[in-house]
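Section 3.1: Structural characterization of target chains.
Under the original work plan, the team committed to producing a structural model for every single-chain target entering the pipeline before any wet-lab resources were allocated. The record below documents one such target. The sequence was received from the expression subgroup and is listed exactly as submitted; it comprises 286 residues.
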Amino acid sequence: MTSRNARTPILVVGAAGTTGRRVTRMLGERGHETRPASRSSEWRFDWNDTDTWDRVLKGAGSMYLVQYDPEPLAPAFIERAVEHGVERVVLLSGRGIDDPDYLPEFFGNGEVTLGKGEEAVRASGAEWTILRPGWFAQNLGEGMFGEDVRSGRVALPFGRGRVSWIDAEDIAAVAVAALTEEGHHGRTYELSGPAALDPEETFAEISRAAGRSVEYAPVSVEEFVELRVGRGWSAEDARTFATLLSPIRRGKDEALSDGVRRALGREARSFAEFARDAAASGVWKA
């Protein structure tokens, strides 16, 4: 595969996020000029302030786009990007958006925000690649479950559901390949780790890496909501979060996919590798 011109600016929208930080780092390591855009960066970008859109897009040749979930703003932004001359778009989407049963409460009517972004990028006229990762392994460290893991007791309504955790390092590596190499146009990469782990296996692996016990405590949805309300959440937010977790207990997140191998020519990083690196970073220190 041939590499794109390293001097062509690559816009990273969502550069402060889990994947955006890694995409920016990897591009820089490979000598590419990047524009890391976020609300707090030099390249200030705010989805809800369209006055910030043109500055980050002007002169960019390629773009990594993390969508704005609450409403479908990505289609308008993608159209604006192409008007500015962006020739290649790598879009971060998500698992299950083409499965109405994945989250029927949200996906059942077919009006999926992330799906609107996919439709827009396919119709944009630019070269495009779509990434559909499952649950990020980093959610167990720097993300939404990190506090629970550091406490040593993780109370979640996972049941016995297995998860094929995907390391965000792999998501970023696929994004960088699609941004800088040929051969990825028109492809949708379903991304998962190499194995699906049940909760006991997941937290046993974290315990081994962290050098201390992390217990999984299965709870019902109602118990989960009560626990989150006790932390200061609203009941509505807690129930919405429980709904977003429901595919795990229904077995919808155990599927394995070959997107990492198709894009990079190697297997996805194992959960043990993720856990080892996370422990070394100190993310699980109480």
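Residues 64 and 90 are 5 Å apart (CA to CA).
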